[in-house]
Write a structure and sequence with these properties.
Blueprint (H helix, E strand, L loop, with lengths): L18 H26 L16 H6 L6 E2 L5 H7 L8 H9 L33 H16 L12 E6 L6 H15 L6 E7 L2 E2 L2 E2 L4 H7 L5 E5 L3 H18 L3 E6 L18 H9 L2 H11 L5 H24 L16 H6 L15 H15 L3 E5 L15 H5 L4 E3 L4 H13 L3 E6 L2 H4 L3 H8 L1 H5 L8 E7 L17 H4 L5 E3 L4 H16 L4 E7 L23 E4 L2 E5 L10 E8 L2 H15 L3 E7 L2 E3 L3 H8 L4 E9 L4 H12 L5 E7 L17 H13 L7
Parallel strand pairs: 1-2, 2-3, 3-7, 6-7, 8-9, 8-10, 10-11, 11-13, 12-13, 16-17, 16-19, 19-20
Antiparallel strand pairs: 4-5, 12-18, 14-15, 15-17
């Protein structure tokens, strides 16, 4: 149906701003509307995949005119008109064609390469993401913070001196905890006098798919946000343009956050499969159509004698033909090839392992605990790279709950090492924003269990940005997490968390576990390379119980500080050969223990006990890299092994041992016996009972003895 069959009546106030502006805004709105029509037609024809349309939201076109490509933006999924208008500033970017290509998941889509229907692209300064549950707001806050942080660090401007960050979202999203946390963190930052040029735009159509908001709810929530200036825009496009201009200027000049409450009415259903007559009254739908912003702007131009009806009909026809050409191009485009799907996240594992080969043991460093080694390598990074920043809860003034970052703030300044509020989503959002602004963020999560509160910032934001942008964007960042169990005199399930299952299936993530200062120095040098050269996201799980450990066998032996005395390097693996009895000729065929984290020390202690009994010679392998697992070196190490025991402090169900067992079985090793020993599937209590909910040394020794006496293969 042609838009103009609905008729034109001059019921809108005359357009009194620049005539060319008025016509160009209408053109972008019309083009957005026709692309929506094409989306539905493509879906109906069985070749389109996305019909969440912008119909009724086209007043956001003013945001496309008032912002610039130098204003990093994260936009709502009903932002077609905004994107088309922003694209006027980038003549070489064919926005209608890009949008049409995304509708059919074409491999030539210049934004995501056909992986998802997302708005954006680097030329436009719009970061591609889905904005479904306001999950993009922590990143938006981080971008605004990093925009100003670069100035404090004396780094070159990215953009203009008055650049701002804009993030738009639907009214239903303000009820999500992620949005609430981001609003709170924004206000918290302002209460601490931090500059934060962030414009939050709530496109309020009153519906969360089918659920209507209580009357006045959105305005009440947005008005009540402390430290965030409230602007309310509704009515004609001219009025919306003027209010949006004020909000924009406030952010640019004050370097302060604002929220623009943009009221609109959704026309059509939530998406192509949604029949809104099931939950909307006919009168409500008719009112939405009567307030159609496209028709209202056309009437406004008519009333001002800027255009005639025939002018507008011709403009509409031209936009319809442009949308049709874009759709025809999309239909002829090749689809995304399955083999290309993961290219933006693909890791060259062979190249990664080559960074460990060939090599001699690095020059010995000072005898340090794990905490001291981490502190040293972080300090070295801060001193050598002015773009590196270290932050998290308590990492600055206090120096970390476990003293790992002690002295870094005093040595490198509070701009480089700083405290955040207690909100893991915000901490990760700050890291994402800092990475997006060319900084090198090293963020800390205080305990592994707390990561679960914010896991979507890793899964749904950090790892999807390169995926959705076809590799154009990346957010290289390092996340340090105080991890695992076995704390003495302190615990409970939040502070003794032995499971990192939630991050094991996030494609593209790299996970490492240092257990000694030597390992930390080497692995964190690798992490720096991965951040700065490969633009990867790296997670380091740091065993809390080993932060200040110095001994292995007896108190005061100091043997944990010098792993090179008892080990050799094989690629990324550290291989420990435990102390042997004097007469090793009588030992049974070798037993190899594979572990990581606290399990490494546990294995070394168990190995000595077994060897002192004269039963078996034991090799202990510290994996050090958990994602990806270093299979080439590991299988090479195990080729002639008779017995393999996987020692995994994680819970039996969902632990790393499952992947290891499967991989060893697939490798068809000649070992007589392969088993695993894990922690039970229990939560960890606070008191003495905690030891029974975690893997213990006695269990390792017991299972090892069983393997030595039984020749039967056992997959645990």
């Amino acid at each position: 149906m042609q838009l103009w069959e609905q008729g034109l009546t001059p019921a809108s106030p005359p357009w009194t701003l620049d005539p060319t502006l008025g016509l160009e805004l209408l053109e972008s709105m019309l083009l957005a509307r026709h692309l929506d029509y094409q989306a539905h037609q493509l879906k109906s024809d069985g070749v389109g995949h996305y019909t969440i349309c912008s119909t009724g939201h086209e007043a956001n076109v003013v945001l496309g005119r008032l912002t610039r490509p130098t204003d990093p933006s994260l936009v709502h999924y009903r932002s077609c008109a905004l994107v088309l208008e922003r694209a006027r500033q980038v003549p070489d970017f064919d926005a209608p064609e890009a949008i049409a290509l995304s509708l059919v998941a074409a491999g030539t889509d210049p934004v995501s390469g056909g992986r998802h229907k997302v708005f954006g692209g680097k030329p436009l300064g719009i970061l591609p993401q889905t904005s479904t549950i306001a999950s993009h707001l922590p990143r938006a806050l981080g971008l605004a913070h990093a925009l100003e942080l670069r100035r404090k660090l004396g780094l070159p401007e990215l953009g203009s001196p008055d650049s701002i960050v804009m993030a738009s979202f639907g009214d239903a999203s303000i009820n999500h905890s992620t949005a609430t946390g981001s609003f709170n963190a924004t206000a918290w930052a302002r209460a601490r006098q931090l500059p934060l040029p962030l414009l939050l735009v709530c496109e309020d159509n009153g519906l969360g798919i089918s659920v209507a908001a209580p009357a006045g709810w959105t305005a009440q929530r947005l008005r009540s946000l402390p430290e965030i200036r409230y602007f309310h825009a509704h009515g004609s496009l001219m009025e919306i343009y003027q209010v949006a201009s004020e909000a924009m200027q406030y952010c640019r000049q004050r370097r302060a956050p604002a929220v623009l409450h943009l009221e609109c009415r959704r026309i059509l259903g939530h998406a192509g499969s949604d029949v809104d007559t099931n939950y909307r009254q006919r009168q409500e739908i008719e009112e939405a159509i009567a307030l159609d912003p496209v028709l209202a702007q056309a009437r406004s131009l008519l009333a001002a004698d800027i255009a005639t009806a025939s002018d507008l009909i011709e403009l509409d026809s031209r936009c319809g033909k442009r949308a049709q050409r874009a759709a025809d191009t999309a239909l002829a485009a090749p689809a995304l090839l399955a083999e290309n799907n993961m290219k933006p996240l693909q890791l060259d594992e062979a190249a990664l392992w080559q960074r460990f080969e060939p090599r001699a043991e690095p020059e010995p460093g000072p005898e340090q605990s794990l905490a001291q080694g981490i502190n040293e390598i972080l300090s070295r990074g801060l001193a050598s790279d002015p773009k590196m920043v270290v932050f998290g809860e308590d990492v600055g003034r206090k120096g970390g709950v476990y003293g790992v970052t002690k002295g870094l703030r005093e040595k490198h300044g509070e701009t480089r090492v700083f405290d955040t509020l207690l909100d893991e989503s915000t901490i990760l959002g700050l890291a994402l924003g800092a990475a997006g602004m060319g900084l090198i963020p090293v963020a800390e999560i205080q305990y592994l269990a707390y990561l679960h509160n914010a896991i979507d910032q890793l899964r749904g934001e950090a790892m999807t940005l390169p995926y959705f942008s076809n590799g154009e964007y990346a957010n290289p960042m390092m996340l340090r997490i105080a991890s695992f169990g076995y704390q003495r005199g302190f615990g409970g399930h939040f502070h003794n968390d032995n499971s990192f299952t939630a991050i094991r299936d996030i494609p593209g993530l790299i996970v490492m576990v240092p257990v000694t200062a030597e390992d930390a120095r080497e692995l964190y040098e690798l992490a720096y390379h991965l951040l700065t050269r490969e633009r990867r996201v790296v997670v380091a799980l740091e065993p809390i119980a080993l932060y200040h450990e110095r001994d292995i066998y007896e108190k005061g032996d100091g043997q944990w500080l010098n792993p090179r005395d008892r080990s050799r390097l094989h690629g990324p693996l550290r291989v420990y050969a435990g102390p042997k009895p004097q007469d090793s000729s009588e030992l049974s065929p070798q037993l190899v223990m594979i572990s990581y984290g606290n399990g490494v020390r546990m294995c070394l202690r168990a190995a000595r006990q077994l060897e002192q009994e004269g039963t078996v010679g034991v090799i202990v392998i510290d994996l050090r890299m958990l994602i990806p697992l270093p299979w080439p070196a590991l299988l090479d190490e195990l080729r002639s092994t008779d017995r393999i025991l996987i020692v995994d402090e994680g819970r039996r169900r969902g632990s790393l041992s499952e992947e290891l067992l499967t991989g060893l079985a697939e490798a068809q090793l000649a070992a007589q016996s392969i088993r695993r020993v894990c922690s039970p599937d229990e939560l960890i209590p606070l008191g003495a009972a905690a030891i029974h909910a975690m893997l213990d040394e006695a269990s390792v020794v017991r299972i090892a003895r069983e393997m030595i006496t039984s020749p039967t293969a056992d997959a645990g």
